[in-house]
């Protein structure tokens, strides 16, 4: 088994401020101004950063520690699997700590979608040599685009 870097996102999850804003409006987060949209997307960027950092650190670890292409690929596959496990773990935390919201509630859907988006971005970081700033920019653009719908 590969000795990959472990991380806990509990501090990040506990500080998910958009959750309270959405919960206070019955699950509908009304973004009415460009400034509100910008603030929301900045928060989304902040929440994505630990996922991206984790992935980049593990990619570097795999590239440095691997003796062969097969070793590198096995290590990267292990990192991808751990990433999926992290997403599941954090989804379970959300569902457990916010028991009043069912999985199909709009606020819970938003939280679970955020986890999926962060996992996808981290997977991209594992698979490419993209810089953290590029990945964060991608997260912000995706947020701005989705907020306009």
Summarize this structure as a short list of keywords or feature phrases.
149 residues; single chain; mainly alpha
Description:
The protein has 149 residues and is mostly helical. The protein has one domain. The chain has six helices and no strands. It has helices spanning 10-14, 17-24, 34-65, 69-97, 106-127, 132-147. Helix 3 (34-65) runs parallel beside helix 5 (106-127), helix 3 runs antiparallel to helix 6 (132-147) and helix 4 runs antiparallel to helix 5 (106-127). The termini are far apart.
Low-confidence sequence ranges: 7-28
Mean pLDDT across every amino acid position: 80
Give the DSSP E fraction (strand runs of 2 or more residues). under 5%
Largest sheet: none
N-to-C CA distance: 44 Å
Helix content: over 70%
Using the CA coordinates, give the radius of gyration.
Answer: 17 Å
Total helices: the number is 6
Q: What's the shape?
A: flat
- Count of spatially separate domains: 1
Provide a short characterization of the protein structure.
With 149 residues, this protein is mainly α.
Secondary-structure blueprint of this entry?
Layout: H1 10-14, H2 17-24, H3 34-65, H4 69-97, H5 106-127, H6 132-147
């Amino acid at each position: 088994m590969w000795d990959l870097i472990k991380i806990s996102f509990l501090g990040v999850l506990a500080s998910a401020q958009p959750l309270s804003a959405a919960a206070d409006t019955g699950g509908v987060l009304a973004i009415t101004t460009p400034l509100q949209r910008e603030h929301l997307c900045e928060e989304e960027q902040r929440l994505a950063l630990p996922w991206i950092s984790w992935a980049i650190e593990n990619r570097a670890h795999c590239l440095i520690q691997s003796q062969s292409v097969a070793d590198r690929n096995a290590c990267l596959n292990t990192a991808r699997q751990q990433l999926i496990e992290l997403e599941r773990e954090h989804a379970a935390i959300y569902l457990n700590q916010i028991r009043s919201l069912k999985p199909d509630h709009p606020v819970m859907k938003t939280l679970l979608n955020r986890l999926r988006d962060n996992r996808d971005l981290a997977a991209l970081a594992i698979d490419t040599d993209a810089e953290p700033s590029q990945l964060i920019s991608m997260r912000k653009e995706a947020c701005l685009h989705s907020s306009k719908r």
